[in-house]
Design goal:
Order of helices and strands: EHEHHHEEHHEHEHHEHEHHH
Strand content: 15-25%
Number of domains: 1
CATH superfamily: P-loop containing nucleotide triphosphate hydrolases
Number of helices: 13
Largest sheet: 8 strands, mixed
Helix content: 40-55%
Oligomer: single chain
CATH topology: Rossmann fold
Radius of gyration: 17 Å
CATH architecture: 3-Layer(aba) Sandwich
CATH class: Alpha Beta
Shape: globular
Length: about 260
Amino acid sequence: MTHSPFIIAIANEKGGVAKTTTALSLGGGLVEAGKTVLLIDLDAQSDLTVALGVIPSAETNSVHDLFLNGKDIHSLIIETGIPNLLLLPANTDLLQLEKSLNALPDGDNRLRDHLIKSTMEYDFILIDCPPHLGSLTMNALTAADLIIMPTQAEYFSIYALRGMMKIVKELREKVNPNLTYRLLITQFDGRNKIHHMMSEHLKRVFGTGVLSSYIEMDTKLRESQIAGMPIIFHSPKCRSAMQYRALSQEILDYAQEKA
C-alpha cells in the first residue's frame, strides 16, 4: 500500500541562513529515525547536490529535466551512498529555468503536478529552495505541506521574514490552503545577547510557529558538507548532530499529528 509523502520546503528569501545545511541535516536525521527521504535541490548553485558528493554538470540529468523536458521523476533520482536518502539533483540549467517557468500559465504548479502523478515511495520529501521568491520557490511552496524557514536571530534575517509570511498567506488563500510554516533559529550564538533578545522576540511574535529545536554555530557542519554527508553520519556525537536529531524528532511528531 502506497502513501503520500510529507513534503517540506526549506525556504527563506535571505541567503546564508543555513537552508541547505538544514535540508541535508534534517534529511539525515529522518533517515536515522528509520524514514525514507528524497531531497530535491531547486537552487542553481547546486549546494545541496555538491554537499552530497555529486558534481553537477550540464550533461547530467537534473530537476530541470523534470520541469521542462517531461522526464519521469524516477529516472532522475540518484542514490547518495546513504541508504534511504535519495537525491533529485540540480545543475546550472536551473539558471534559465526561472524565465521559462514565468512564461508558462502553469509555471508555479509543475512540481506539485509531477509529485501528484508519480508513485512516491518516500516518507518525506525535503525541497531546498533558492534564496529568492521566484518560480522555483513558488513551485516548492505550492507542493509543500510545511515550510521550514531557517532564520538567524539577527535583525536583517528576521526582517526578511515579512516577505515570506506574505507569500504563505497568499498561497493559503489561492492554491495551497493546508500549507503551514515553522521558523527554525539557526547559527545561534549563546554568548551573544542580541541573539537571545531576537530569539525571544520571535517566540513572542510567532508563538508555536517557532520550532522548539534550534541550531547553534558549529564548524562540524561545514566539515560534513566537505565530507559529502549529513552531520548525523559524519560526526554523530557533536553538538549540531544532537540538535538536528532533536529537530528531526520534532518534525516527525508534527507530521504524525497532521497525518
